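User: Can you help me understand a structure? I only have the sequence.
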Amino acid sequence: MSKTNNRRDMKNQLRMKGLNPSITTTTKDLQERLAEVKKDKLRNVPGIASRTIFKDSVVRDYASAIGLGDDIQIMTKTNQGEKMRRLFNIKIKDDSTELCDGLQHYLVESVKRTDKQKWWESVDLENDISYDYAYILKEGLIGGLIVAQRGECVVDVDGQIIPGGDWNVWTVRLICNAEKFSTFRGGAGIALGLFVYAIKKARIERGMLEVADNYENYRAYCLYTRFNFEESQYPCYGFGWELVMEVRPARVKYRDIFEAVTNWRNYAPSTVSALYCNELKRAIDNGETPTPFEEFKEANDLMVSVFEDGGTDDESNGANCVIM
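Assistant: Let's start by predicting it. Here is the structure, written out as tokens:
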């Protein structure tokens, strides 16, 4: 391997750990920093990778497919390293960061469960709830964050197990776009695209979420519809809002996920829900009350070919912050 390729490889390894060495970093410094990173004890947990939705290989393939630049990293529970984990936890607890419009307390609790619960060591995995998270980092700023949860379709709002619930469903527990001073656009879309891509790779039958404030939260709703989420009656007992949506990843082509991320200004799937996003925006722009969804659906009932042939193969930033 040439010196140039070796330097590039070392830089890429460091970037996957959340470190972004400058062009002037010497080869010796790169080697020393990489050696330090490899001492990271984070991965020394047997079996964690097999029970993680945002696997390292999935994140790498997704970042490559959407053409993510070298200046943007997708950080996850398993790839961020101890240093970045500490910085991340400090950042979300810092009021000056103003992540998620003051909902840091909720995010802190979610991440605390991720870090402390040690669900991968549980002797009773079938009666446990699992969290995973990913965030988009650019120049030290968080441009989008998603917390995913496994178990909400089995546990009710009081934390009681519901017999017969589906343990294999992953839900979007929390998603938000950027911290206060970030100019990074589309971060929430990158995070949500990763979620749909990851559950499709894992052959998970459905991904669920609920929309806080229901249709009034039209920016969040429009973001979800772009990734083929549609209204659903599927029971998730831990949900508290009325508007529940699901995506069936086996019915979504990979190229549609990538298009939704990279062409967010113009792309919308051919679904009634995506059309209803336009109805919500039209009504808000004109100061009108939008047509109720069921009435709109009846008037715009479509045969959507993309869902039939499937494929095994301002909302521009997403919600300002959405608590599910």
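Now, to help you interpret it: Residues 40-323 form a domain with the Aminopeptidase fold (CATH 3.40.630.30). The two ends are 48 Å apart (CA to CA). Let me know which part you'd like to focus on.
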